[in-house]
Amino acid sequence: MTSNRRIMLNGFKSATIGHTALGLWTHPDNAVRDYGRLDYWTGIARTLERGCFDALFIADAQGVIDVYQGSTDVTLREALGIPIIDPMLLVSAMAAATEHLGFAVTASTTYEKPFDLARKFATLDLVTGGRVGWNIVTSSSRSEAENFGMSKPIPHDERYRIADEFMDVVYKLWESSWDDDAVVHDRERRVFVDPAKVRRIEHHGKYFDVPGIFICEPSPQRTPALYQAGSSTAGIAFAARHAEGVFVSFPRMDMVRDAVRTLRAAAVEAGRPPGDLKVFPLSTVVTAETDELAWEKYHEYRAHSRSEANLARFSALVHVDMAALDPDEPLEYVESDGIQGSLSVFTKADPTRKWTPREIGEFLSVSSMGALFVGSPTTVADQLEEWVEQADVDGFNISDTLSSVTFPDFVDLVVPELRRRGRVWSSYEGATFREHLYGPGHARTMPGHPATEYRRG
């Protein structure tokens, strides 16, 4: 039995050349070389807003992939996440070019300072009218650690302990340092801010010592909409406590369904309603007027993909150099915790296949480790509806596979079909990012969320 549940839509990009569909920068129709121009980004934002997308989700990293062959050669040749610019600095321009679209920006709790990051997000939330979200990451790569003066990454579980305290600090800054009515702007009494309604947060913890008052006035959301993508035990627990949107990446619907069940159960365990976690799978959509034309387009894209680039990224994920292995040796025989943990994704995707480095490099072409939807607008809409009903996802992170083509194709072809079915917005409801997630009137964090515990009047 189907419902008329709204399908939420996020555009998914990184401020770089090679993101999910590695190698497609060589396609003659790909406009990604213009990633350093503001009109490139404002054009993307306008396109997504024309389709009433909820948000643009911008991934980021501050290191370089250097595990494959023990060098950065393939990474540089194939523009694998490099060059990459700071996405936070792009948001103001995109927000000025739009009125409703939200922007989820990636920032790390491991390398940022909570006071500084709180100020950045408060600023963006204020000047955009509450259209900002934060994709929370803890950063695991050795390269990033070295770039911030460390000899090696902080151990996994400790990164999440740091992140938990980091969140407590920023919640105090955003939610409890200033009362809602602290800014009075009274010219006659010469009182701009009422001193009685601003206070120090006096945070003194294991990792952070932040005693003072916050220096930004309250913004529309106070706490930005919060996204997270951790899939480990610690990552799931963190998402259950803090996240409002969760990004998952699996190639099959049953795998995503299992992940959604785990996340919603964890939310309940954390004292939150299961529906307060909105789940978005990584999704590659290749569409055209007919199924046949869409598949022709997909195979054309695959011709530009490079297995070596995919293996370079996979090497960084599992912390094992795939170039040092026999390309045709099944990975089940390789002794590595990192490989075996990631290999389970592939074995579940196709248990009959012998997963060798060569096979994985080919499998990751175009759609990476996410879902793939290929077909006419009717076919794609059918598939998206099936995932919403069967996997209990709330929407999709639509990857910008071929820049200047993918988002316009989706907006011009798939969105009208979804609108005909009553599945997506024809006009926006609510003003803030969080209202996109929870509905008009819900600009602030929901009951049961830890940020709400720090809220003052």
From TrEMBL:
Keywords: Flavoprotein, FMN, Monooxygenase, Oxidoreductase. GO terms for molecular function: monooxygenase activity; oxidoreductase activity, acting on paired donors, with incorporation or reduction of molecular oxygen. Pfam families: Bac_luciferase (PF00296). The keyword tRNA-binding does not apply. The keyword Phosphoprotein does not apply. Residues 28-390 form the Luciferase-like domain. InterPro entries: Diverse_substr_monoxygenases, Luciferase-like_dom, Luciferase-like_sf, NTA_MOA. This is FMN-dependent oxidoreductase, nitrilotriacetate monooxygenase family. It comes from Pseudonocardia dioxanivorans (strain ATCC 55486 / DSM 44775 / JCM 13855 / CB1190).
